[in-house]
Amino acid sequence: MVNKIVVSLGIALITGMSAQAQSPDIRAVFSDAEKQTRVMLAEIDKAKEGKPDLVAPRTIEQGKLKLVKSGDWTSGFFPGVLWFLYDYTRNTEWKKEAERYTADIEKEQWNGGTHDMGFKVYCSVGNGFRLTGSNHYKEVLIQSAKTLSRRFNKTAGVIRSWDHNKQKWDYPVIIDNMLNLELLFAASKLTGDRSFYNIAVSHANTTMKNHFRKDFGTWHVVDYDSTQAGKINKKTTHQGYADESTWSRGEAWAIYGYTMCYRETKDPKYLRQAENVAGFILKHPNLPEDLIPYWDFNAPQIPHEPRDVSAAAVMASALLELSTYSKSGKLYRATAEKMLTNLTKSYRAPIGSDFGFLLQHSTGSKPSDSEVDVPLSYADYYYLEALLRLRKLTGSKKLY
Question: One of 176, 223, 354, 380 is an active-site residue; which one?
Fold first, then answer.
């Protein structure tokens, strides 16, 4: 049940929404996104000279555009951005570019050394399949799901996240891994093979049991004993402020993941979980007035801490979908709209700047002093996804 504080916030949001004289135009945002992405394409060509194994932009590092190989967990987001531009405009220019950049990711279907198959392949190839129906893309998705499934441990009941730092963890699972389940659900529908579905459900159920505190904040990393069912070695963080703090993007992955799981299964416990996570976010005293969260809800120097625009973009996209399932839909939609309005007004990169990224002020990993207050490719991806979802809901080209 939604907390009274959250309901009050929803009333305030809805009231504030109707009181605004102007609001951003989705058509204008996509027009600007096209201009920025043309800048990005030119910058990629420059940065790739002599480096053919680099396939996609990730961020800006030391004043330069940072490109990554296909094996990087962020490689699929820029092809996804190109597919979103094609989705909105139906301009074949963007389809051709999306196909070109997606082709660079396809070999990842065989890469069993990572859990990030959904991020890499579903955000690129998955969007390509959605928009073209290509049988080739279908086969890539199915093989990717098979590869990902091999990381599932029946004893632990979850998909292993990382293979690195084996001296630190036995069988680590991060909350981010919830986003890779969409690929498994898709493969189950494409093939009729229930095993993909069952793995996804097992992972979602085990994560729901072990990754959440009583207030529905999340631990980032849960380290399982892979040989003894139900045994957990420890619960820690890798990208958050502290083990007991709530990393903002982790909370964003949680609301997105359980909303998606409800869509795919219609199991009401997933809907309740997504609503509970939404409650944590919306009633948290450290959520800023503009709803763009700090990188960790418990970061010690708030309000003098970096924001994480990527977390806001993921949250906005998730809240828009959740609004279509929940009795608190008006609240969730109003919240997402306010997030998108503020991202659009205050966090976008000026046209021609930032190597063509769309949004500024994201935080990758503050504890590692890595990618702090910079553009990130996945912030752009979820921002455009959220705008497309809002357009579909409203049937209009205005945010409000």
Answer: 176
Instruction: List, for residues 251-266, the tens digit of each pLDDT value.
Output: 999 999 999 999 999 9
Instruction: Check residue 13 and give left, alpha or beta (phi > 0: left; psi -120 to 50: alpha).
Output: alpha
237 phi/psi in degrees, rounded to 5:
-130, 160
Domains, the chain = 1-52+275-400 (1.50.10.10)
CA distance 377 to 78: 6
Three-class secondary structure of residue 359 per DSSP: strand
Instruction: Give the C-alpha separation, 247 to 276, whole Å.
Output: 16
How many helices (H) does the chain have, and how many strands (E)? 14, 9
Question: Which of these is catalytic: 116, 223, 296, 354?
Answer: 116
Is 175 within 8 Å of 253 (Cβ atoms)? yes
Task: Quote the longest CA-to-CA distance of the chain.
Answer: 60
Our answer to whether residue 354 is catalytic in this structure is no
Summarize pLDDT for 159-210 with one digit per residue, the tens.
999 998 777 889 999 999 999 999 999 999 999 999 999 999 999 999 999 9
Cα(85)–Cα(80) distance, rounded to whole angstroms?
9
Residue with tokens 């493969």: 187
Residue with tokens 């979602």: 204
Residues 6 or more apart whose Cβ sits within 8 Å of residue 315 = 251, 252, 255, 256, 281, 293, 336, 339
First and final CA of the chain: distance in angstroms?
Answer: 27
Confidence (pTM):
0.94
Is 176 one of the catalytic residues?
yes
Tell me if 200 sits within 8 A of 177, measured CB to CB: no
The answer to whether residues 143 and 175 touch, using CB atoms and an 8 Å cutoff, is: no
**Three-class secondary structure of residue 196 per DSSP:** helix
Vertex 74 angle, CA 56 and 278, to 5°: 140
Q: Decide: 394 and 335 in contact? Cβ < 8 Å.
A: no
Structure-token match 């960790």, residue found: 296
Q: Where are the alpha helices (DSSP H) in the chain?
A: 4-19, 26-47, 77-89, 92-103, 117, 127-132, 135-149, 181-191, 194-210, 248-265, 268-283, 309-323, 329-346, 377-394
